[in-house]
Amino acid sequence: MEAATQSAPSTSPAVNAFQFVFHIDVFLFALAGVFALFALPRALARFSRAAEWRHGHILRAIPLERRAPKPPMRSVQSPPSGFPAADNVASDESHTLHSEAHLIRHPAAKEEGWSLPPHVRAWSSRVPTFANILRYRLDVGFSLGQALVLVIYSAALVYAGFLKSNPFADPLRTGFVAMSQIPVVYMLATKNNILGIFLGLGYEKLNYIHRFAGTLLVIASNVHSLGYIYQWTINRTFSKNIRMPTHIWAFVALIIVDLIYLFSIPFFRRRAYNLFYYSHVVFFILFLPAIHAHQPGVLPYVIAAAGVIGLDYLIRLMKTRVYNARIRPIPDLMLTRIEVPQLNAGWRAGQHIRLRVLSSAMGWIGWAESHPFTIATAAKTPEGMVLLCKKTGRWTGKLYDMAKVAGYASDEGVYGRTVQVMIEGPYGGPGHCVFASYSAAIFVVGGSGITFALSAVQDILQRDSEGASRVKIIEVIWSVRDYASLTPLVPQLTALIQQSIYTPLKISVHYTRASDNPPGKDFLPPGLTLTAGRPKFAKILDAVMSRAVSYGSNVKSSMDITGVVVGVCGPIGMGDDVAQVISQVDAGRRWAVGGIEMHEEVFGW
């Protein structure tokens, strides 16, 4: 990237470029502040409960206390007859080291014994028509609302670059535009995103802005450089200018940002992720001193960018834990189950961690690779943290192979192998959305996305047992390719159904691969169904809304209707389909049920 070397940059008598782009940054952050204000009521409601301050930030191990049961009340869903209680589910059958029977408690019959989470409706529920417009998908995984954000952002930078300026006659201006976006691009690249903290969004939800901002920075840098090359060529001073140290550093910085962009295209992200990741880290570090050597006047922006990156790595270090974990293969699902019983608190349902397996069996650099996985259990349970890692690539394939060669541990008598793992997190999750504060919860998941549903349902049932949930109905819709994927999880799903003492839980499994021998269903307990074909989500949503309005037992029958939350975790197309169904719900029915809110976790980059 190129810029003039004068210390007091000004491209025209009317516009001071340095101050102008600074004001553009102020405008962008003020706009982000407006969005943060819209999120503030839900944030205050969530953090009004002291327990929320301890969850979702730092992983930790705590001693678990088994609370005394509260006085019983009439249940609306008793354990299915003919099936063993949760305590009788063997670990080898349920793929867990511990029973989940500790969740089976009876909530208080008296309303004063309850501690219900406060509920604040999201803006999407208050203005559903506008929300439906913003939720409209322009492309797979890309909504009109996201496009609007990018249009506003790009309009601000175009205005900054072209107001009383011609990129070829005044290339300095585009240089300052690029310079002003350095802290923005770096901030949006961090895992502990300052903007995301205020908005209640995980870093992955803001990643599309990071990519777009980086692209605009690259474009502005190249236009800036081409403008100076054009001027030098016209004036026949190219050879003289190219030898100047500040201009040499300019081209070093330009090459760096162009390489960052090159290795960020989908081909490298999907086919050579390590090349994408490590090139990002190395070039991000090299870019800051190169741009400062080119133009010392950018020092405030360099310090800001280095500051957010340094703070991010410090927080990531504080969030990192090293534990011994047990790994076991689940062949029917082609995934590896990782159990860390010592780590049992600090996360929220739906959050993910970044995992490193510190073993030479992972390869020369495999032990240093970090991969994200959704936590499959709720916090504060005896089984601790559980991860289900689908075999999809080289790294997960090595992890699965390592788990397969494990034998029976003589000291525990449990199938598996112990490895040392480094866990960083938690990250992402539902933000200021509290699943237990809604009247009904639906979880639509595909494949290994079942981990999201397992942790969310377990968390709601746990809160139910403590009298801290408003949820009247829980529905899980799991889409898989092969019906055999259900078999390993039947004991665990059965245990969850048995634990839904007075909040009905229904789990519908749909398989899409045709079979000459249809599976038998006699082994399925009441509440768990297996069906061929894709799920009819519109019909399920309609039924849940009807039951949420009319259904309830004792204390819950007198509770206010607080809406339906729909959690989605699966391929990008699944989220698009669910969003379309929600947008088609009649406005009157939506209002009667208290609104419909959607939380989405998707596979892919």
Structure description:
- Mean pLDDT is 86; it is low at 1-12, 69-112 and 408-413.
- This protein starts with 16 loop residues before the first helix and ends with a strand.
- With 605 residues, the protein is an alpha/beta fold.
- The protein is globular and about 85 Å long.
- The chain has 20 helices and 14 strands.
- Strands 6-5-8-3-4-7 form a six-stranded antiparallel β-sheet.
- The relative contact order is 0.14.
- Helix 9 (207-235) packs antiparallel against helix 11 (245-262) and helix 13 (273-294) runs antiparallel to helix 14.
- A hairpin with a 4-residue loop joins strand 3 (320-330) and strand 4.
- It has helices at 17-47, 91-94, 123-126, 128-135, 144-162, 171-180, 182-189, 194-199, 207-235, 238-242, 245-262, 266-271, 273-294, 299-318, 394-404, 450-465, 490-499, 537-550, 572-583, 587-592, and strands at 137-139, 142-143, 320-330, 335-340, 351-357, 371-374, 385-390, 417-428, 440-446, 473-480, 505-511, 528-532, 564-570, 596-602.
Brief synopsis:
The protein has 605 residues and is of the alpha/beta class. Helix content is 43%, strand content 15%.
Shape: globular
Helical content band: 40-55%
Strand order of the largest sheet: 6-5-8-3-4-7
Low-pLDDT stretches: 1-12, 69-112, 408-413
Please, how many helices? 20
Cα gyration radius (Å): 27 Å
Residue-averaged pLDDT, rounded? 86
- What is the structural class? alpha/beta
The fraction of residues in strands falls at: 15-25%
Largest sheet: 6 strands, antiparallel
How many runs of DSSP E, i.e. beta strands? 14
**Alpha-carbon distance between the two ends:** 28 Å
